[in-house]
Design goal:
heterodimer, A: 924 residues, alpha+beta, 6-stranded mixed β-barrel, 4-stranded antiparallel sheet, extended, B: 80 residues, Eukaryotic RPB6 RNA polymerase subunit, 4-stranded mixed sheet, globular
């Protein structure tokens, strides 16, 4: 290739006057080669003492690399810049360790052919063979590039647009850019600005527009040569007018472009000479990044890349032979096009205008671009998407009988996920038993790891050998057992309590089990939620997880300083009922306490019957004093560990309030609190179990006086509205300032209806049957509220859509059963009935309108607010509170001069406040 | 264009004042920071229009805080 050589020389000169320091670029360029090889999965690029690329590369850059590889200690360097470039044909040949000349892969003995695509100079993929370039064995040798000398140059598909803009904007005679000298400086500054905004692509586009705007009359301003239009016939053919430009011609033109003009295109000629964009030498990637698989039949199945390279080599050799034999131009052209096709599909098998190259089975080949691109590509799948071993994921279900900091793990999972245990003289016998039981029987072991790192699977056959071999220093990977440390997690991980450490409890079944009290921090429910379980594999990580992330360490939320874990549902109802009404015989009380896991019942007063507060007091520490409020505002007093006054409800025990739990935590620490929490939780549940808990429809009955009063309130409101409407029609209604009369009417109607509904609610609260199980649920805060109660027993009330009464539907009315222009409450979504009595069809329809609207609203709002939260979290992720109380970012810039403006550590406060009075009281 | 409204009179605009050289020095010393680590405020900010602040000046902002009653904040003036 004489032409290539000529250009090579010009390039050498260029390198010397390159603006950036040349050696550094070289280094980076070579490194990028390494990256390519390292893409093979499970590639461990251990630095070896050999001089791998020495003979292949020869000159300065390789010498540098060699010195890095040969010295045993690592050299740390700060990367000052990274330069991306295109490899020159000369450099390609230099860095290659073999020239590929034959499409054959293996000889008759199955040994790789010299000069073939599996040449052992390109690296080894067979165990036992040694790489001819570096002398390393399989997994030690990272592989080496080879090259193919192209019989005729071809276009690189990824450079097609760049080449096109270069051809269009330069003179075909002198190679200079088609902008006159005078205007060059000005154009440069314009382009500079465009590049900042839109990058290199925009810059090249802008060059074309500048040239077009010059109206130079298709003439080169430097040599006056006439320019003809150059177009691209996709995918890879350039046309000058009607004439086809062969890659040779294209290359010749690109060679002519002076370095200064290349710079205008944003191409640094030191790293990318335009003519290098045309392939005269094709690099052959190392064998290690395209390993072949040996099938069970002993047949070899080659990688897609190898297939494609084989095609390229075959056609290339045919082209060589035909050219040498002086074959007719047509045949050569055909082969050339075919070569172009193969090289194109080698880089990208998803080019729009080309049929993708296929396997014999018809499935398209996965070539270079497909390896990197898209969701399944290297970047998103392998680099950004990390996966872990020793983890499990399944559906979760509740189990109130396991501890709060436990997680129920199905046996099938426990037998798959393992914990490594190092064999010591003193646990040898213990571990041998695991090996003996093997992988099939439960507390067994799956693998034995020798000190040299060799991992051996335990099977019925290898069991004996493994048992015999076992000695201190070996590692046994035994099944998961009760008490093992695991990390439990549920997405989305919005706060740190989304990932906590739980201890294993192996259970039958197929779901992961968790105590319902920890639903709140995970935001989990059991409608099909799945969660992840990870098993730390080192002592350090286990210790760290246990100390820093166990459930009890996360009790108090750093967001609002109150417990995130608390009683819920039945246990709240139970605790409330127990402390409010219960009178039990001493025997029953003891029975109850023992079921709740209390073993010391000595605190229970020695009476024939004890009340609920006395039972509850048994679980409190003896020196515990507490004063608080219940939801109703009544006082709660705990004195010397005895509940003297008040009922225990959601405000004392619940998640996100839990003042009693907060007080316990402050005084006795997390472990005691979580123990008490578990006992209280179980006690509440057990009390309900004992007494029974159910609702009746009569729970919602109201006494007739109340019914009359409610009816009266509604009628009154309706009458008032009637007069308002009349006033409105007579034009006597006075408008609110800044509102129209119609709006005023709407406001007044809404107000009156709401007033009536609130009155009804008040009446329900007063008159509804007390102490029914329904009321217990509502009053304890376990479920439901008084509003819902009154909707069932008194009146559902006005249905509001976007803050207004319902207006939608037909013209002038909501439903066709109303008169046009009817503005009475019933025609606009006032639901007069209650849910117990049942709704009229219109009312039912109105309820569905608002119901559907709120459903859609939540469905649309959740992802939106999730994204907002994510952006907030990402923006603030490296802020921290320094020792001087300031909040600073990673660079030390001050964000807040005083954390929260009051320097309160919320996780040590109660609901963001500090109770100074108590501090004074307790310091006495 | 002339300002139509004096923002400093608005209830939501906290009190902005120029910090003296000494206060500035004390501030930087007490937090052991350089001027560049302070939060910024544009010279053209309407709230400091009346102060004739120059680049590099420090503005003391006294604002009401829901957690601390009243709190002091500092910003350095930048051009723009």
């Amino acid at each position: 290739m004489p032409k290539a050589k000529a250009s090579e020389e010009t390039k050498k000169e260029l390198k010397e006057m390159a603006p950036e320091a040349a050696p550094e670029e070289e280094e980076v360029l070579l490194k990028s080669g390494d990256v390519g090889a390292g893409m093979t999965p499970e590639e461990s690029a251990a630095p070896s003492a050999g001089a791998p690329a020495a003979e292949a590369a020869g000159e300065a850059p390789s010498a540098k690399r060699e010195s890095v590889m040969a010295t045993p200690q690592y050299i740390f360097k700060q990367v000052s810049n990274i330069v991306f470039g295109v490899l020159s044909p000369k450099l390609l040949k230099k860095m290659a360790s073999a020239k590929v000349v034959t499409p054959e892969l293996y000889d008759k003995e199955g040994y790789p052919v010299d000069g073939g695509l599996m040449d052992i100079r390109l690296g080894v993929i067979d165990p036992g063979l040694r790489c001819k370039t570096c002398g390393c064995k399989l997994k030690e040798c990272i592989g080496h590039f080879g090259y193919i000398e192209m019989a005729r140059p071809v276009v690189h598909i990824k450079f097609v647009p760049v080449i096109l803009s270069l051809l269009r904007s330069t003179c075909h005679e002198c190679g200079k850019i088609l902008i006159p000298k005078e205007k060059l400086e000005k154009s440069k500054s314009i382009l500079e600005k465009i590049e900042i905004e839109g990058g290199l692509r925009a810059r090249r586009k802008a060059i074309k527009t500048i040239i077009d705007s010059l109206k130079a009359g298709n003439k080169c301003s430097h040599c006056n040569a006439k320019q003809s239009k150059i177009s691209l016939e996709k995918p890879t053919t350039y046309m000058e007018g009607e004439r086809r430009l062969s890659p040779i011609e294209v290359r010749a033109r690109l060679e002519k472009i002076p370095d200064e003009d290349a710079m205008i295109f944003g191409i640094n000629p030191a790293t990318v000479r335009p003519e290098w964009l045309i392939l005269t030498v094709l690099p052959v990637p190392p064998v290690t990044m395209r390993p072949s698989i040996t099938l069970e039949t002993g047949e070899r199945s080659e990688d897609d890349l190898t297939h494609k390279l084989g095609d390229i080599v075959r056609i290339n050799q045919r082209l060589f032979e035909n050219i040498n034999a002086g074959a007719p131009e047509i045949i050569i052209e055909d082969l050339w096009d075919l070569l172009q096709y193969h090289v194109t599909t080698f880089f990208d098998n998803d080019v729009a205008q080309l049929p993708p190259a296929r396997h014999r089975s018809g499935q398209p080949l996965k070539t270079l671009t497909e390896r990197i691109k898209s969701k399944e590509g290297r970047i998103r799948h392998n680099l950004a998407g990390k996966r872990t071993n020793f983890c499990a994921r399944t559906v979760i279900s509740p189990d109130p009988f396991i501890k709060v900091n436990e997680v129920g793990v199905p046996k099938v999972i426990a037998m798959k996920v393992t914990v490594p245990e190092v064999v010591q003289p003193w646990n040898m016998a213990y571990l041998k038993k695991f090996v003996e039981r093997g992988p099939g029987t439960y507390p067994g072991a799956n693998y034995v790891v020798r000190p040299d790192g060799k991992k051996k699977k335990i099977t019925e056959e290898t069991k004996e050998a493994a048992l015999e071999e076992l000695q201190p220093g070996y590692v046994v990977e035994r099944h998961l057992m009760d008490g093992d440390i695991t990390i439990f997690n549920r997405q989305p991980c919005l706060h740190r309590m989304s990932t906590m450490c739980h201890k294993v409890k192996v259970l039958p079944g197929r779901t992961l089990r968790l105590n319902p009290t920890v639903c709140a921090p995970y935001n989990a429910d059991f409608d099909g939620d799945e969660m992840n379980l990870h098993v730390p594999q080192t002592e350090e990580s286990r210790a760290e997880a246990e100390i820093l992330m166990q459930v009890q360490t996360q009790l108090i939320s750093p967001r609002y300083g109150l417990p995130v874990i608390g009683c819920l549902q039945d246990s709240l109802s139970g605790s409330y009922a127990l402390t409010k009404f219960a009178e039990l015989s001493r025997e029953d009380a003891i029975q109850l306490l023992i079921r709740a896991g209390v073993t010391d019942v000595g605190k229970l007063p020695n009476k024939k019957t004890v009340n609920g507060r006395e039972i509850f007091s048994v679980m409190m520490p003896d020196d515990f004093n507490f004063e608080g409020e219940s939801r109703s505002g009544a006082k709660i007093v705990i004195k010397d560990g005895k509940l003297v006054e008040g009922v225990i409800d959601e405000k004392s025990l619940g998640e996100g309030s839990g003042f009693l739990l907060r007080a316990l935590h402050r005084q006795y620490g997390s472990q005691t609190t979580i123990d008490i929490l578990y006992k209280v939780f179980t006690l509440g549940n057990e009390y309900l179990q004992m007494t029974g808990f159910s609702i009746v429809i009569s729970d919602f009955d109201l006494p007739s006086i109340a019914q009359e009063q409610i009816e009266q309130a509604i009628v009154e409101a309706e009458n008032e509205i009637q007069t308002l409407i009349q006033q409105f029609h007579e034009g006597k209604l006075e408008a609110f300032p800044g509102r129209s009369v119609g709006e005023t009417l709407e406001f007044k109607i809404l107000e009156l209806l709401n007033k009536a509904r609130n009155k009804a609610g008040q009446l329900v609260k007063e008159h509804a049957k007390k102490d029914t199980d329904t009321r217990i649920m509502v009053d304890s805060g376990a479920r439901g509220n008084i509003l819902q109660l009154s909707q069932i027993s008194a009146i559902v009330g006005q249905q509001a859509l976007r803050g207004k009464r319902i207006e939608k539907g037909y013209r002038g009315r909501t439903l066709s059963c109303f008169k046009k222009g009817d503005i009475s409450p019933l025609a606009h979504g006032f639901v007069r009935s209650n849910l117990k009595k049942g709704l009229s069809p219109q009312e039912f329809f109105f309820c569905n309108i608002t119901g559907r609207d709120s459903l859609m609203d939540t469905a649309l709002r959740t992802p939106k607010s999730g994204y907002l939260y994510r952006r907030l979290a990402n923006a603030m992720q490296d802020l921290r509170v320094e020792y001087d109380g300031t909040v600073r970012d990673a660079t030390g810039k001050i964000i807040q001069f005083k954390y929260g403006e009051d320097s309160v550590d919320v996780s040590r406060s109660e609901n963001g406040k500090i109770n100074i009075q108590r501090i004074i009281d307790t310091t006495e | 264009m002339k300002a139509k409204y004096d923002v400093t009179k608005h209830a939501l605009v906290p009190k902005h004042a120029k910090a003296s050289e000494k206060e500035k020095k004390d501030l930087l010393e007490s937090y052991n920071i350089t001027l560049h680590q302070l939060p910024r405020i544009l010279k053209s900010d309407p709230a400091i229009d009346h102060l004739d602040a120059e680049e590099g000046d420090v503005i003391r902002i006294t604002r009401a805080s829901p957690t601390a009653g009243e709190t002091v904040f500092y910003r350095r003036v930048i051009n723009g």
